[in-house]
Amino acid sequence: MSTTYSVHDEAGRKEMIQEMDVKKHEMEVLQVELKSLKPGARVYRQQPNSNIFFCSDREKELASCKKILNEMREKCEAVTGDDKC
Question: For 42, which DSSP code?
């Protein structure tokens, strides 16, 4: 019975790692896009769970993106036990 549990646990772990990789890649693309904008460019942030966008600052969004990326890397390292995340 414990063997079946560990197989399901491993499958869930792999799925979680794949999902984290996809989200990490999205954040890396966002970071590159934000860096490529001109300093005076307008940036809008979507309000969670709605279709409302608010004007934001490029530097603020870039800092937020970097923070999220670092958190995701730490979480990935904790789950995989590997520092290659």
Answer: -
Cα separation values, 43 from 2, 8, 26, 50, 80, Å? 51, 42, 17, 17, 34
2: pLDDT strictly greater than 50 = no
Eight-state DSSP code of residue 47: P
- pLDDT tens-digit readout, 11-42: 777 888 888 889 999 999 999 999 999 988 99
Structure tokens at 41: 């460019």
Domains of the chain by residue range: 2-80
Q: So what CATH class is 2-80?
A: mainly alpha
For 15, counting Cβ atoms within 10 Å of its Cβ (0-12 exposed, 13-18 middle, 19+ buried), the class is exposed
pTM here?
0.74
Region for 38 from its dihedrals, namely left if φ exceeds 0, alpha if ψ lies in -120 to 50, beta otherwise: beta
